[in-house]
What we know:
The protein has 125 residues and is mainly alpha-helical. The protein has a domain of 77 residues: Cytochrome Bc1 Complex, Chain D, domain 2. Helix content is 53%, strand content 0%. It is built from six helices and no strands. Helix 2 crosses helix 5 and helix 4 crosses helix 5. The radius of gyration is 24 Å and the shape is globular.
Amino acid sequence: xxxxLPLLLIPPIALLGSARAADxxxxxxxxAETEIYQASxxxxxxxxxxxxxxxxxxxxxxxxxxxxxRAYWQATVxxxxxxxxxxxxxxxxxxxxxxxxxxxGNERPxxxxxxxxxxxxxxxx
Length: 125
Ligand code: HEC
C-alpha cells in the first residue's frame, strides 16, 4: 500500500490549528432575563424557578392558551421530563402542575382570567 505523505500530514496540522484557537479566551455577555414566573405562595413557585428555567425562558409557559386545564399542564410537565429529559423528580410534578394551572391555566382566580383575556383580546372587545 502506498501512502501519500502530504495527505497524512494534514490531520496533525489541522489539530494544531484548532488547539491554538481554543487557547483564545472569549467572553460573551447574555442579555438579562426580563421575564420571570409570576410570584405565588404555592409550593410549586420555588420548584418551577429551580427546574423550569434551565432550557428556556418563562415565555413558553406564559403563551400557552389561558384556558388550559390541569391535564394539559400535567402532560406538558411530563413531556419536559420524559421527552426532553428535564431532570424533574416525579414527586415535584404535582406541586409544579398545581402552580401552573392556578397561575397560567383555567384554575386562576376569575379577575386574573379577565385580565389575561384583556391582554390577548383585540382592542375594543
Ligand atoms: C431539559 C430542557 C427543558 C427543561 C428543564 C424544561 N423544558 Fe420546557 N421545553 C423544552 C423543549 C426542548 C421545548 C420545545 C421547544 C420547541 O418546540 O421549540 C419545551 C417547551 C415547553 C413549553 C411549550 C409547549 C410545549 O409543549 O412544547 C412549555 C409550556 C414548557 N416547555 C414548560 C416547561 C416547564 C413548566 C418546565 C419545568 C417543569 C420545563 N418546561 C422545563 C425543554 C425543557
